[in-house]
Specification:
heterodimer, A: 217 residues, 11 strands, 28% helix, B: 541 residues, alpha+beta, six-stranded antiparallel sheet, four-stranded antiparallel sheet, 19 strands, 36% helix, elongated
């Protein structure tokens, strides 16, 4: 009987060991990103990235009201090559002044001198209360084989009315004002091979880009 | 004393155990029959394991197991497996009883970017009143039948005038607009009321001044216009041919549509475009291809025909080109627009509408705004209790002012809240919300599709769980992957929906079993240990 009991214990031990393998998670770091609308001291967004991504903040002398300047830039370096990830925001105070997402997509496509049409993936995308498009494409840009992963995102229509309402109700809470002004783009650009190797990291980091404060109900 | 001893003996006996088991079996049979007949899990649960008699049976089991163990007193070495088994059973039963009194089950519905620490408790009824300038809703939870006496919420005295267990709820809307896309839009979050927006099936940037006469003078004008546009869409013609039979009331559109204000060159362009396009359509119907027709007509578009995705695209550009060069074209045989037949007017009107159609990427839909009228009709209660929508009629008094309002049960607490006393308050009839010690924020929700298809096989969500100390944890939950906290809260992903803008909304089922880690799970372990000892070891003295 004791012999049988030992066998049962051995089986259970093997079962436990066999089912406990886990992949080591990557080391991640959360960055806070300041806004653009004249209140640059206040962080509005946050994003979680792998810790080897190099963060480059904009020059403090830059006029950040200029929407061509990124809020923040990340670089992924490997030997001589690099991927550059830029996040821009596009403040709007009237809905008809929002930059159409299709215009962003068109602009990115036009940056390629030759675009491999078979590589283009354009999908609807939503994350963190924003909705928009994810563009993945490859082609030649500045005489180099280049890939792009880019998101053109707008605060969802369902959120706009509740943020506006909270702005009226709590004019002292500035973060509602900032939330109204935060359509953004996230663009990663680099060599085809390097982009392929880092694709999952870029996509998963992009999905963590969100407001620091909750969007109100 | 003898009676007490007999009762004590009976409570710990195998006969009492058999009685309890038979009773539970009966409950289970009844529950199964009810659920299979009504498809209502709620109704079956109400008559079985939520029933007080069933809870009493659990107490009976607890007593039976406890006393049957105590009857072995004084305990001996050989009793050890027996006592361990019974102790495990008692712990499991205590865990179940604790859950029935202190446990929690509810739903949490959140959109991406939002966070909440309030769950909606199903099968509870609450009236929520929000005062415009107070910002925090006053929430009163109550069983529906107990609202009959006067209640006070904020400054309001509320009386239940009547209620019915089930009603249907529908918007009253012109039948011609029934098939079109509708959205309820709130003014000032509902305090200033609601409107219904009906999106027309076309996108135009029309100079609306030409329609003003119709909108001002004739209520039937908008209806006729809608019918005409629907007729046009169903006809599948890019512009209406001049020999097509039209709806009878079409004249009322042209009686009020102000052609005289349409610039002469636009009218001229309409005539050219209608003639050319109808000519091309007649050739297409004879089986010729677009390039053949254009080559035959020597029309310059054929040289870059590949730029157009389809014939509609070509027509669209053709109309634009005609409108842009119309001043260079010779005068046509002039038509007196006021004396045309309805068919010719309709055809030219469709050309004119097409000329003002936006390019697809810049399309702005035309929206008609209507008042929101909701009709509640009492109906027979459904067999499936969960799907009943109770309706209540309330008499509400604010000082001297009195208002009556009808409310239907808003099961998911996502519906509209009705304004009271000219937008001073909002009121809704909904389930009770209970706070939990975790704030859940939805970062992203995803449908996982089978490769190269649009068929979902799973869905998952990234959520940020923040506890009462402010410590956050990011986790991904999916259909088979539950998030569980150390104090027994479990979060199941129950549903995922895409809203109009593409934003995702999820429903989490939140379950709290406070005794799970202290009673139920250790009890199960101890029970298993006792069973192993009973089977594999002999404890002979």
């Amino acid at each position: 009987m004791v012999h049988f009991f030992k066998k049962v214990c051995l089986f259970l031990l093997c079962y436990l060991i066999a089912s406990c393998h886990r992949q080591e998670p990557k080391s991640m770091v959360t960055h806070e990103i300041n806004g653009r609308d004249g209140s640059l001291e206040i962080p509005i967004f946050r994003i979680t990235t792998p810790d080897h991504w190099i963060r480059l903040d904009p020059d403090k002398n830059d006029d950040l009201k200029d929407t061509t300047k990124p809020l923040v830039t990340f670089q992924i370096k490997k030997k001589e090559e690099r991927i550059t990830i830029t996040i821009h925001s596009f403040p709007f105070f009237e809905e008809h002044l929002r930059v159409p997402q299709s215009a962003q997509i068109k602009r990115w496509r036009n940056q390629f001198s030759v675009l491999d049409s078979s590589s283009i993936i354009l999908e609807n995308y939503s994350s963190g209360g924003f909705v928009g498009f994810l563009l993945e494409a490859s082609g030649r840009m500045n005489e180099k084989e280049t890939s792009i992963i880019a998101f053109a995102m707008q605060l969802a229509q369902e959120h706009i009315s509740s943020v506006k309402f909270q702005m009226q109700l709590h004019p002292e809470k500035r973060h509602y004002f900032h939330q109204m002004c935060c359509d953004y783009t996230f663009k990663a650009l680099g060599s085809k091979e390097m982009m392929r190797d880092n694709r999952m990291d870029i996509l998963s980091s992009a999905s963590t880009l969100e407001f620091i404060e909750d969007i109100p109900r | 004393m003898k009676l007490i001893f007999q009762i004590y003996h009976f409570l710990g006996s195998i006969y009492f155990a058999l009685f309890l088991i038979a009773s539970v079996v009966l409950f289970v049979i009844v529950g199964t029959v009810i659920e299979s007949n009504t498809q209502s899990h709620g109704q079956a649960a109400y008559f079985t394991y939520q029933n007080r008699l069933f809870i009493l049976l659990l107490y009976g089991f607890f007593l039976n197991i406890l006393i049957s163990a105590l009857r072995r007193w004084p305990f001996r070495f050989k009793h050890i497996p027996f006592l361990i088994t019974h102790f495990g059973l008692l712990m499991i039963l205590a865990g179940s009883l604790m859950k029935s009194y202190f446990g929690l089950q509810g739903n949490l519905i959140i959109k991406e970017g939002m966070a909440s620490n309030e769950i909606v408790l199903p099968n509870t009824y609450a009236i929520e009143v929000t005062k415009k300038d107070e910002k925090i809703p006053a929430n009163l939870v109550t069983e529906i039948k107990q609202i009959q006496t006067q209640m006070k919420i904020l400054d309001l005295n509320i009386n239940l005038i009547s209620w019915c267990p089930h009603c249907t709820e529908r918007f009253e809307i012109e039948s011609v607009l029934n098939n079109l896309q509708r959205t309820v839009v709130a003014y000032d979050q509902g305090f200033a009321g609601y409107k219904v927006e009906v999106t027309l099936p076309f996108s135009f940037s029309l100079p609306l001044k030409h329609f003003r006469k119709g909108f001002d003078n004739d209520k039937a004008f908008i209806k006729s216009l809608m019918e005409f546009l629907s007729f046009w869409e169903e006809s599948k013609y890019w512009i209406l041919p001049m020999d097509l039979s039209l709806p009878s009331n079409i004249e009322s559109i042209f009686a009020f549509f102000d052609w005289s204000n349409v610039p002469a060159n636009e009218k001229k362009a309409c005539i050219y475009a209608a003639r050319i396009i109808l000519d091309i359509i007649s050739y297409l119907e004879k089986g010729k291809t677009l390039s053949e027709i254009l080559m035959e007509k020597r029309w310059p578009f054929f040289q870059n025909l590949e730029n157009f995705a389809n014939v509609s695209d070509f027509f669209f550009n053709l109309v634009k080109q005609i409108f842009s060069v119309v001043n260079e074209l010779p005068e046509p045989e002039w038509i007196d627009f006021q004396n045309l037949t309805s068919n010719v007017k309709a055809s030219l009107f469709t050309v004119w509408l097409k000329a003002y159609e936006y390019e697809e990427y810049n399309a702005k839909k035309m929206v008609v705004e209507l008042p929101l009228n909701i009709i509640y009709e009492a109906s027979e209660p459904l067999k499936k209790w969960e799907e009943n929508i109770p309706k209540i009629i309330l008499k509400i008094q604010d000082g001297e002012k009195i208002q009556f309002t009808t409310l239907a049960y808003d099961r998911s607490d996502t519906g509209i809240k009705m304004p009271l006393f000219n937008g001073k308050y909002l009121i809704s009839f909904k389930p009770y919300n209970q706070k939990i010690p975790y704030r859940i924020r939805l970062r992203q929700a995803r449908n996982i599709l089978y490769p190269n298809t649009s068929q979902p096989y799973s869905f998952e969500s990234d959520i940020v769980v923040t506890d009462s100390l402010g410590k956050s944890k990011v986790t991904t939950i999916s259909m088979n992957n539950v998030h569980e906290t150390k104090d027994g809260y479990r979060f199941y992903l129950a549903n995922l929906t895409s809203l109009k803008s593409g934003l995702k909304q999820i429903q989490l089922v939140v379950n709290h079993d406070p005794g799970k880690y202290y009673l139920t799970y250790p009890g199960a372990f101890i029970l298993s240990l006792g069973i192993i000892m009973l089977f594999f070891f002999s404890f002979k003295e």
